[in-house]
Amino acid sequence: MAKVTLCDVSKNFDGVPALSEVSATIKDGEFVALLGPSGCGKTTLLRLIAGFEAPCEGEILVDEGTVASARTNTLVPPEARNMGIVFQSYALWPHMSVLRNIAYPLEVGGMARAQREAKVAAALQMTGLTKYADRMPAALSGGQRQRVALARCLVADPTAVLLDEPLANLDLALRGAMRDAFAAFHQRTGATMIYVTHDQTEAMAMADRVAVIVEGRIVQFAPPETLYNEPANSFVAGFVGDGAVVDVNAGDRIGPTAVQVTFMGQPVTARSHTDRPNRLCIRPEDLTVSDQGVLRAKVRQCTYLGGRFRLSLKTGHGADLVVFSAKRVDVDSTLGLTIATPWAFTQEAAHG
Amino acid sequence: MAHKLQGSRPEGWLLSLLMVPVILITLAPVVRLFIEGITVDDQLDSGLFTEVLLRGSTQSALWHSLFTAGVGTVISVLIGGAFAFLVALTDVRAKAALVFSLMIPMMIPPQITALAWTQVMGPSSVLLKTLGMAPPLGAPQPLYSPMGIALLLGIQHSSIVFLTLRAGLRSIPPETVEAARISGAKGLRVWWQIVLPLCLPSLAAGTAMAFVTALGNFGIPAILGIPAGYSTLPTLIYQRLSGMGTTVLSEVAVLAILIGAVALLGVFLHRYFLGQRAYGLVGLATRPLEVRLGQTRWMVEFTLWAVIATILVLPILALIVTSLVPAYGVPLSWETATFAGWHETLFRQPVTARAFRNSLLLATGASLVLMAVSLPLAWSMQRHPNRITRIFDVLVDLPYALPGVVLAIACILMFINLPFTEYTLYGTIWIIFIAYLARFFTIMLRPVQSALQQLDPSMEEAAQSAGAGLACRLRTILLPLTAPAAAAGAILVFLTAFNELTVSALLWSSGSETLGVVIFNLDDSGETVMASAVSVTVVLVVIALMGAIQFMSKFMPKGVVPWQK
User: Fold this and answer.
1) Least CB-CB distance to B464: which of A79, A88, A89?
2) How large is the average pLDDT for residues B67-88?
3) Which of A195, A344, B293, B379 stands the most exposed, by the fewest C-beta atoms within 10 Å?
């Protein structure tokens, strides 16, 4: 297993930028999710790491070795990188049995037969596919195909495992089960895993760290709880988790991590790393419905989520808020709210 | 470990070098022909060009070509269009059998179609004599006429219209028709206002293609027109070249350019209409449209099968009957029936034996060579596209779409003197072989291309990240997955090459006769019985091979078998 380093990597397709100056280090044995809306460049980044694309600028290193560099015009082809990849379509070869699909990387590598058989048997065992070894891919269910693809990419002990939206083609129930399977698998093998997804719950549930990518740039690369509690900008705040982002005027700093802001005419203490934040991220947990609350808001919508209600609110100042409530509340009624310590950040103009 | 970027996949770029011989064989002759037409003694000169164009014989042949191909196309549209609408839109039964039967006329070589039909009509028709219905001796053969030529051209190419139109009809989502019916439209109104406008580009494209093919047809106007002294451009070229030899090469090159230009116009129209077909129809046509015919269904079915019987069964029956009589003109009965003609052609005549062998070798060789080249070529065209491969992709249809005589003349010009040597290929079987490679390249390449395109690219990428180099991927992943399409393409090439007449009629020499040439020559020299016997054999081979493709079609990707989907 290995560490993967990206240094100022850019990629254009016919002049259209897909990735711009991406720098990141993925640690040995880390499970990293590349999260972003479709078309943001996350799959391009994965394909650059795999070697299917060459960077237009910058360098990619695996451990200390350069695998791609635009400066020296070097590119180690995918077949020489020893990475495992699971495609969204799984890309099982329909003319080979499960066994041959899994054995293929070892056959190509010229491994001796006895050793090969032992490794394939182990991979089959680990993915629970032993009794399907002689089936053809067409005769497998979606979840089984997924496991064959995983076994195939692991059998040759790759330096890193790349996963391109591997759960997108599965139904909801199976998705949950496979998510747990991936996490357990990562714990057991300690493999470096890079996982592309547009589903924030998937990314948050499995990854050690999540890189949020927007328009070809990594806007925040942090553990899931940091993304949720301390989003770097409006996009991350909106894309990850529920809640609202509102404009505020910053007041005085009242400690190393706290700042006084004015929200709806009221002084509110917010967590922040910057001196003059201009946005406030209010998660539903930051608000409590209370008759004593000085903040007043009108209920626009009340949705039952099972066990609790999600209320969409509109304040007198025109801000949209979200809060959870234990009881059903009538639409158009007015509520009082108290606010805990939300997260305040500085939004630069370019990101609107 | 690290390679230089440009050289990172040397095998990939090596494969691109395949383009060089392929372009030399497929496209260079056509370019050479064009240069011949506009130069005299290597000087740019349009003198010969205008002189040949202004000749009376040229102009009448051009008019004859346009007239027969035009009327023939109208007939093709009537037959092919009616079949396409009825088969694609209604609930007639046994659709697969109908489609298969309608495809046979296209696959049967035109000179056999012409020969067979002359056995159906006319004073010496064995079939009519046997039935006692023959017109008196000396009565004219009604098919030796412009309308006769047009009729057979129409029948021969109706399946082109049928196939293109049916493909268009199948891509109409049934929702569009259901929406019209919910709005209150019924019956013919739906057909007229919804279905017809949506499939008009397909119909136009099929019509243009049928016209181009009819224009280049040689077998039918040769067998029916030459006895009547009625020349079309292909037969005029043939007559000039076989009468005067290579001294008139420059002159026939002009004629070839003329017919090639008209055909090219049709090809462009075809492409244009196919492009118009993309209306942006929403929804997948998963369920085909199926209008219930109700009470009238058996009548429609009866009519369709009656048409098939007339254009397919009747002529083949006439051929069989003729092949069984001792001498042409004798009626067939239990006493007169004999296999003498068969025996003579199949076992005694050295020419026919040689022709069988030549055609077999040419067809096998062409399909094997093309099969071996197509996968690596299609791969490099798809994965390393550049300006050259894109232009080639557009032009590779040309040697097939252009009339056979044009390609034949182009090949003579190109290979009569091999550049930098004293050698000539003209007069050997190799010139026919090269012409076949050029002409049938697209038949082989397109199915392989479409199989490769339908293949999930991550199939190959998965193998690549498993450590497989290009040669290994081609062998273990791509070859097995495209093999069915390649096999279908190879059988189609074999079928078409085995029956070919137009190209070989101009390129053959003693010793390198093909089956098409032998049938034509036997008929020309009055050996109708023997010509019929050879023809029946060829028709049987054609039907057997088509059956083989039909059987294999369920294992193949979509769009590989031309008469499926």
Assistant:
1) A79
2) 93
3) B293
